[in-house]
Amino acid sequence: MSRSIPVVVLAGYLGAGKTTLLNHLLRAADGIRIGAVVNDFGSVNVDAMLVAGQVDATIGFGNGCLCCAVDEGELDALLDKLVHPDGPVDAVVIEASGLAEPADLVRRLLSSANPHIEYGGLVEVVDAVEFHDTRAKHIDLDRHLRLADLVVVNKTDRQSDAAAVLETVRGIAENATVVATSHGQIAPGLLFDRPAPDVGARQLSFADLLDHHEHLHDSYRSATFVANEPVNPRLLVEFLRKRPTGLYRVKGPVDFGAAGFGDRFLLNCVGGYLRFRRTPWPVGEPRRTQIVLIGHDADPEAAIEELVACVEPAEENDIFTALRHTDHD
User: Fold this and answer.
1) How many domains does the chain have?
2) Which residues form the CobW C-terminal domain (predicted)?
3) Domain that holds residue 270
């Protein structure tokens, strides 16, 4: 099976904490090889990253992560190098500052001819302390929040009225998952899938040495739904459109049975983005649905009960509900 690489767009106004968040993701990668794409290396704490080597405009870190400095004109060529089945990373984060307007970056990703790019969401970072002032100065902030799939409200530890800020943000970003944090510390697993563990011996990475690393897993929850009978495509799409707030990512292979012409539909649902990729079932792979649900302040286990209700025979035209959101290999 060809490998897809999630590409996340990281945005936010100056001082919001997106650089802190990016540095945290690189340090606490938890076995995920992240390729960070920035406008210049000034935004990355290189000294703290156990630099393993430098080739041209790429810095390699001891934990398998990379950081690449490019300008906007070089971005597409760099993504083609990073995002392919044998590429050096498991996920890519593009810091929007200095490269392009976040909405433009999202459009470029969604219209990319690279079949291995998987949209990983638009993450907007806001400063809880300066939120109201930033909103007054930048009329585009509300628009950015409405476009975002995930909003990280940073520095809540320094805002005495953080609850009011969060309420305002949730009112604007109605369709986004909103996460409150300090020092940009969000669990990488909220954004990316962890690779299969290597059962062999390995060298300790920088992430292994971080005192705060383990408890970050508590900030998100995941559950897996498995069905050996075909899923109704209309009911599944309805669930995805109305899924519980905070259920940020839903992904995995789906079997629509005869309604899906016997093909496998790979689901990728991030924030407000919903897409299936239609492929043949690999030889020898069981034809079953295996959907992973990942959320923040959400109960993925409760959502599984709703998915169980999607396992029922489909009407002839039900498949068209899913086909409207489907790409073909």
Assistant:
1) 2
2) 220-311
3) 206-328
